[in-house]
Amino acid sequence: VGDVLYCAGQIALVPCTMQLVSGGVRTEAVVSLHHVERVLQAMSQKTALHHVIAATCYVTDSKHIPIARSLWQKKLRECKKVEDSEMTHDVTAVCGLLAVVVIPHLPRDAAIEWHVIAVVDDPLQRKHFAMKMLSEGFQIECESVESSSASCASIAVRLSLISPSASHLDLDGPLHDLVAMFRQAVEKLSEDCSASPLSFRAFFKEGVFDAEALQTGLQEYLEKYLGKKTPALILVPVVDLPGKEVVHITCWLS
């Protein structure tokens, strides 16, 4: 759509048989990510993984999180080497924001699936913004990436539990701060960027929060802070998230 490529989730199927590749999660991770690269190249010849602006990796075991992350970084470094060989000046490409989440099951009993949105733009000219704060026993981190064409952007917000006592979690303050920080990220987009927040997808760790309280709180603060620009709120319960994360939000702006 325009300069944006929306790629459906890819698992490690062998194209000629449509059966899952054998060899375990590492092999699956490489093959499924290779499928993503091939799809992007088929849609636009110059497109590579560093054109991805938002990525979600679904895995079925917490032990697979480091595998997914290290492969992602390795592939991006490979893109950067190709780029460096073509460039004479030292500029770093701004790559997409990755969310890794653990879910109970994937199609065909796959161990890993990659889902990406890419932009046919110049990753060297993208704008990147990051901030963090503490809020009542939680840490909130926020990152945004805006395409060089200013046609779209991706924002990630991570809520991590830093307080050792998790017996009673008061969500109200942290959710207020989280949405306030999200609004700040939206306001930091360049004047040329007319993108609006469309989908606000909140992956949350099951058993930590009451889903209804989470939904009510997020919806209330989104409407308070964003008014008519309030994105669609999508809650996704997950088995686990990296580190001490309890909520990982990915927002697509277009």
Would you give an account of this structure?
- The protein is of the alpha+beta class and 254 residues long.
- Helices cover 29% and strands 33% of the residues.
- It has helices at 25-43, 65-86, 172-187, 211-226; strands spanning 4-10, 13-14, 19-20, 52-59, 97-102, 112-119, 127-135, 138-146, 153-161, 197-205, 232-238, 245-253.
- Strand 4 (52-59), helix 2 and strand 5 form a beta-alpha-beta unit.
- The longest helix is centred in the N-terminal third of the chain and has 22 residues, at 65-86.
- The chain is globular and about 50 Å long.
- It starts with a strand and ends with a strand.
- The mean pLDDT is 92.
Q: Which key features would you list for this structure?
A:
RutC-like_sf, 6-stranded mixed β-sheet, 60s Ribosomal Protein L30, Chain: A, YjgF/YER057c/UK114, 254 residues, 4-stranded mixed β-sheet, DPH6/MJ0570, ligase, 2 domains, globular, 12 strands, alpha+beta
In short:
By secondary structure, the chain is α+β, with helices and mostly antiparallel strands. Helices cover 29% and strands 33% of the residues.
First-residue to last-residue Cα separation = 11 Å
The whole-number mean of residue pLDDT values reads 92
- Please indicate the percent range of residues in DSSP E strands (runs of 2 or more): 25-35%
Q: Examine the secondary-structure arrangement and name the CATH architecture of the largest domain.
A: 2-Layer Sandwich
Number of strands: 12
Count of alpha/pi helices: 4
Q: Might you state the CATH topology name of the largest domain?
A: 60s Ribosomal Protein L30, Chain: A
Low-confidence stretches: none
Structural class: alpha+beta
Rough outline:
globular
Walk across the major sheet and give the strand order: 7-8-9-12-10-11
Under CATH at level 1, the class of the largest domain stands as: Alpha Beta
- Please give the domain count: 2
